[in-house]
Amino acid sequence: MTVVNFPSKSRPGGQRRRRPEIIEAAARVFAERGFHGTATQDIADLLGIRQASLYYYFPSKEAALEQVCLKGVEGFFEAAKLIAESNASARERLSLLINSHLSPLADRADFVKVFLNERQHLPTESRRRVGRWSRGLERIFEDVIRQGVAAGEFRADVNPRLAALAVLGMCNAAASWYRKENVGISRLSVEFARLIVEGLGKRDPPPRRHR
Amino acid sequence: MTVVNFPSKSRPGGQRRRRPEIIEAAARVFAERGFHGTATQDIADLLGIRQASLYYYFPSKEAALEQVCLKGVEGFFEAAKLIAESNASARERLSLLINSHLSPLADRADFVKVFLNERQHLPTESRRRVGRWSRGLERIFEDVIRQGVAAGEFRADVNPRLAALAVLGMCNAAASWYRKENVGISRLSVEFARLIVEGLGKRDPPPRRHR
DNA sequence: GATAAATTCTATAAACCGATAGATGGCTTT
DNA sequence: AAAGCCATCTATCGGTTTATAGAATTTATC
Asked: Which of B21, B45, B42 is nearest to B33 (CA)?
């Protein structure tokens, strides 16, 4: 009976310890050339193994995309939901939402990028799933903005739906250039949050003083 | 000698009158499935012709992409430059820039979308070209914002580079959802411009009145 | 209506790519 | 060191896709 808790027995079908590394390589290449622009050979090259060896780690190229996308959205929704449900002001919550939405760029930019650009190529089932997920996130932003309007924190003539899409678009676009620009996430978050809440314009052009 | 100015003689190698239609079909399919996700067969299907017939209109699939991308950026830069060089206020110019940047979505959303999402797959030479073009446009937005800061119209602590990327990201993202959301360009432009210049926040939370 | 030009078709070559099957070697455990 | 599992390899099949060649058909011109 000797039950062993070492890495043995427990798994009937292989451990595949290198799996995370494989998925990371896939993310890198997918991010750079896109899903259909990538041959499985490209992933193998990056890893220094043979093309066919990849199939020990996933059953199909699409399955690999699915894994990458999953890691690309992991936690987003939950974090956003927590923030949205806190009882801070709408301004504060929106700023936190922006920060939370940008944070993953720091350590998994490729995964996020692949999710954003390649999710359309997921098999039907999981594409639907991430569709729902995506709409849920939009809704969270939209609701916080709507609450801000209702509370008198935000302008009354704001269209919460459009504003939410604007904010998300702005943040998501950062995935494309975050690495090239030399700016940290916290700096970026602050800049974006202030841009959205306060705008670019100066508050009170003070009554013109004579020099 | 009889020189004819009718549509004859002038072109030695064919007229290819259907070319615009062909390119439009390519744009449609590229926009939906991406460049590498599209087979030339798909374009042919949409047109009701045979796959091989396409090659009467362009020498390669990449060349078709090039044409689509070209139409996707046509005029952007020139329009933006004119606006940036006008002597309106920075606020006004930025609003006009946003409007001008969104306008093409009305009648060539597919072309714009393809340019934004698929330009990475252009052959090296033209990719470099649109790279320069793209940076030029960023620069225009950035400069107007910088001038607004210098003129005291915009907050002094704004990072013009990041703000420009934010605005462009916001506008470009609209290409993905413009059709689904039922909103006209003018409405969208106004909303976005106000969002960027004034922000979401209310100006003067008036000294708290009783209820 | 004859002729020429423009357009579309059929047929197919050649390369590429995803995926499977089964062999091989190395590491772990007993 | 024997046994078994884990990981990778070799070899290859079948399907897809881009692109070319040349015939056939339609359209325009005189």
From this structure: B42
